[in-house]
Amino acid sequence: MADNTKLKNAKAVKNDEFYTCYDTISNEVGHYRDQFKGQIVYCNCDDPTWSNFWRYFHSNFASLGLKKLIATHYAKDSQPSYAMIYDGGDDFNMDAGKVVEIVGNDNYSAGDFRSDACISFLNESSIVCTNPPFSLFREYIATLVSSGKEFLVLGNQNAATTKDIFPLFKENKMWYGASIHSGGIDFRMPDDYDEYSKNVFIKEDGHHYINLAGIRWFTNMDVKYRHDGLWHLNGKFDDTQAHKYYEGNETLYPMYDNYDAIEVNKTKNVPIDFDGIMGVPVTFLDKFNPDEFELLGCTQRGCHDLVPDTKKYDDYWEVKQDGTRTKSTGAKTNENGNLAMNDGKHNYFINTEGHIVQSTYSRLFIRNRNPISKDKDLGYKA
Prior knowledge:
The chain has helices spanning about 5-10, 20-30, 50-60, 60-65, 115-125, 135-145, 165-170, and strands spanning about 20, 40-45, 70, 80-85, 100, 125-130, 150-155, 175, 185-190, 200, 210-215, 215-220, 230-235, 235, 260-265, 275-280, 295-300, 315-320, 325-330, 340, 350, 355-360, 365-370. It folds into two domains: about 5-225, 3-Layer(aba) Sandwich (Rossmann fold), CATH 3.40.50; about 240-380, no CATH class. The chain is of the alpha+beta class. About 15% of the residues lie in helices and about 25% in strands. It is globular, with a radius of gyration of 24 Å. The chain contains seven helices and 23 strands. A hairpin with a 2-residue loop joins strand 13 and strand 14 (about 235). Mean pLDDT is about 90; it is low at about 5-15. An eight-stranded mixed sheet has the order 5-4-3-2-6-7-12-8, with helices on both faces.
């Protein structure tokens, strides 16, 4: 077995990152098991001394039928950086494998996913699976996409609405994974890490954890659930449940003040008969089936060329419910989905003519590919 002195020494180095839990990984990868057979898996943001990505793929190397496993460690505080490479034979010995010291280049530190050495490993690999730095998520995804590799990585769900990431969803080049669609997931923290002490808790294993909401798997690997969506089950239209309709319920779906689209405040309320453009919550992506809907754009961040906003609010000002003005102008709400209303609960914007609007949260713009009219028999009893 290879000399793993550097690997063992690194265990004493303090790490200030969130550690992905083993169950979080196994719950997701289980949906793609057949796709891993014969593949080279690369975990390019993982020190194998503590990474559960390394642990999961190492201990399941034979059962997944992997060809090779590679993990690269990012150098910190002048510590040595290395790659750990495993090609089978001793799956339950986490230190089994070859240790290769790696160096940085003029632009990136040793072990950085953008460094020459890590790009070389990326080019060799088939599938990338890791939890990348959220602060570098857009650049990280750009690196993966340019490589042409398959990937399965964790990120904040709101990254899907950014200028760099949204087009990948729109063009059907990336989607959410299968196992996380609501709530938060636990990440283990270093036991001496106290920066987030107010949100950290201790589990029965004695280690510190933090629960983070809005986390999703991002992938370009096909998975069964994405062919179900809102109105399909097992790839077929589901005619066993009641559906929401726009006809006769128009007041429940107001038009935006600044977009030629209707507001749908919850994914479950998307009307099956509407053939125009709809604004829906970002969580709609958890139900997005490209055979059901066309994804057109999203509010803000320059991602709505196909659904342009029809007015600006630069001459408006923001007002609290008690009538006092904030320091913000209407420019704050430009490109948001705005409704001509005052719900009596939230701040609103008003101009000299007394016209009032309120902002919605971030919205995606979608269109039903096959609207079904209300008078069509869908095979169920209302």
